[in-house]
UniProtKB/TrEMBL annotation:
Entry keywords, A to Z: Glycoprotein, Secreted, Signal
The name this protein goes by in its record: VWCE protein
Top-level lineage group: Eukaryota
Listed GO CC annotations: cytoplasm; extracellular region
One GO process term, biological-process aspect: cellular response to virus
Places the protein is found: Secreted
């Protein structure tokens, strides 16, 4: 008697009175309370007990485990769907968690290139001449590098090494030891030069004139023919042209009006019989 307990003070927050011990939510997911006349606020802490929660719904602060978010797609609770990896895996949404199950396939070889079911397959190996080869392996026969074999789904396919087409006649083709394909023999070294116009073969180093006295040809060491014309540098007013000789001769005499006169020889002029001419080699 005569004593009284003072009541707990109220809180004022943004102009609104709050009862002592009151709790309320403020924007930004702030949890506030009135404690001893003071307002205490702290961010809401979310405990998410699932692996694939849905994004925070409007008006809430924490993600929802009623449903699942998988690869950017929202799934309802209990939704069953196929995985995007294409291997027939089936997934289900349970309490915000995704569980996936892959089909169990018995071991065996592939029935075809594209199996109709969802089971993966292991291509069969090849047993060939006492050896086992994996699918896709390439190998050669015993000591025969010219034949290549491949294991394809339990079967062995062999083929010969491709050879190029040769441009030499068959009698010049030969097969070297350890080689798979024929090659052309090296042509024999030329023994001379063959002239197509008259069928004459000249030995290497032979010099001849093909018909023009001013042109000389020589048979080269590689069987080719090299020809060159002769340049005449000696000139005189009345040279003598000797048949079969390239350049005119100015040392033997003179040619005058179609006649040949020797050095120091005198003769009358055809144009004027009173004139006497003499051949002088200069």
């Amino acid at each position: 008697p005569g004593t009284s307990t003072p009541s707990a003070p109220h809180c004022w927050y943004q102009g609104v009175p709050r009862e002592p011990g009151a709790h309320w939510m403020e924007p930004g997911c702030q949890n506030c309370s009135c404690q001893g006349g003071r307002v205490l606020c702290k961010a809401v802490s979310c405990s998410v007990p699932c692996s694939h929660p849905l994004p925070t719904p409007a008006g809430s602060c924490c993600p929802s485990c009623t449903g699942c978010l998988h690869e950017g797609v929202a799934r309802a609770e209990g939704d069953v769907f196929s995985s995007s990896d294409g291997n027939c895996t089936v997934c289900i949404c349970l309490a915000g968690n995704i569980s996936c199950i892959s089909p169990e396939c018995p071991p065996g070889s592939c029935p075809s290139a594209s199996p109709p079911d969802c089971c993966s397959c292991q291509p069969a190996k090849c047993n060939f001449r006492g050896h086992t080869y994996a699918h896709g392996a390439q190998f050669s026969l015993d000591g025969d590098d010219c034949t290549t074999c491949t294991c394809q789904g339990g079967e062995v396919e062999c083929s010969f090494a491709p050879c190029p087409v040769l441009d030499c006649p068959q009698h010049q083709q030969h097969l070297s030891p350890g080689q798979c394909c024929f090659t052309c023999r090296d042509p024999p070294a030329p023994a001379g030069c063959f002239m197509d116009d008259n069928g004459v073969e000249f030995p290497i180093g032979q010099i001849w004139s093909p018909g023009d006295p001013c042109e000389l040809c020589i048979c080269q060491a590689d069987g080719s023919v090299s020809c060159k014309r002769t340049d005449c540098v000696e000139t005189c007013p009345h040279p003598i042209r000797i048949p079969g000789q390239c350049c005119p001769d100015c040392s033997a005499g003179c040619t005058y009006m179609g006649r040949i006169f020797y050095n120091n020889e005198t003769f009358p002029s055809i144009l004027d019989p009173c004139l006497s001419c003499i051949c002088l080699v200069r």
